[in-house]
Design brief:
Layout: H1 8-18, H2 22-31, H3 38-46, H4 53-62, H5 67-71, H6 78-84, H7 89-96, H8 100-109, H9 116-125, H10 130-152, H11 159-166, H12 170-196, H13 201-216, H14 218-227
Helix pairs in contact: 2-3, 7-8, 9-10, 10-11, 10-12, 11-12, 12-13, 12-14
InterPro entries: Cro/C1-type_HTH, Lambda_DNA-bd_dom_sf
Protein name: Helix-turn-helix domain-containing protein
GO molecular function, one term: DNA binding
């Protein structure tokens, strides 16, 4: 499982607001069942390590800080909303009456196939009306499809549709797509280079696996890039020519 979104700067700011040292944070986390050393707390704040989901939830409690603040994102995907409510996959799956592997697959593939009862239970667990949940699920599926088309094809033609769907500035989308396209091209060129060079099958499988993992978290990576650009509310700019 990939690590959760996490902001070292927000974590440090939250700790300083409490007046606690990294040692005190580690001590308080231990009281809640998560045992670790102060050096790990410091590593989180330096950005050299990222907490697990459970560590993130407990850190938020210890720092009296909302989890989304430490995540430094506006929850958009099912996973984001789940973590914002401090729910593990296991706990949420049990709460909505779904097998863990079924829910985990739905979250990873961004395809919701739950029945009406499970959908309503999920909406309640995430603190939103069922109608809002259905909109989120629909948007995630469309966003995933558009992003895949953008990185694999002519990305500039997808700026406006993605900006409209995501309701963000076109310049933010342009920046995100440029980075994503560069990363995708780099992975593809690595694979082709090793293929032409006749590299071992294990090497090709490893790169292919990296590509699959990269594509799997494409929406999350897109939002991370958008959130790291200018967040000021400005009128949407004209599409670049």
């Amino acid at each position: 499982m990939s690590t959760p979104p996490f902001s070292p700067l927000e974590a440090r700011a939250a700790r300083l607001r409490t007046g606690m040292t990294p040692e005190q944070v580690a001590t308080e986390m231990a009281k809640l069942g998560v045992h670790l050393g102060p050096e790990l707390v410091e590593a989180w704040e330096l950005g050299t390590k990222v907490p697990s989901e459970i560590q993130l939830f407990v850190l938020a409690d210890v720092l009296w800080c909302p989890t989304p603040v430490l995540m430094a994102i506006r929850p958009r995907t099912l996973r984001d909303h789940r973590m914002a409510r401090q729910l593990t996959c296991e706990r949420l799956a049990h709460r909505i009456g779904m097998e863990l592997h079924t829910y985990a697959k739905a979250e990873a593939e961004r395809r919701w196939n739950g029945d009406e009862h499970q959908t309503r239970a999920l909406a309640e667990a995430l603190g939103m009306p069922p109608e809002s949940l259905r909109v989120i699920i629909s948007q995630i599926a469309e966003l995933t499809q558009l992003l895949a088309q953008a990185v694999e094809g002519h990305w500039k033609s997808h700026i406006v549709p993605l900006a409209d769907l995501a309701d963000v500035d076109e310049q933010q989308v342009k920046y995100a797509l440029q980075v994503l396209r560069q990363e995708y091209t780099h992975i593809t060129q690595r694979y082709m280079g090793h293929s032409v060079a006749g590299s071992a099958e294990a090497v090709l499988r490893k790169i292919a696996s990296e590509r699959t993992q990269w594509l799997r978290r494409l929406p999350e990576h897109f939002w991370e890039l958008v959130d790291h650009t200018d967040r000021r509310q400005t009128p949407r700019s004209a599409s670049p020519t």
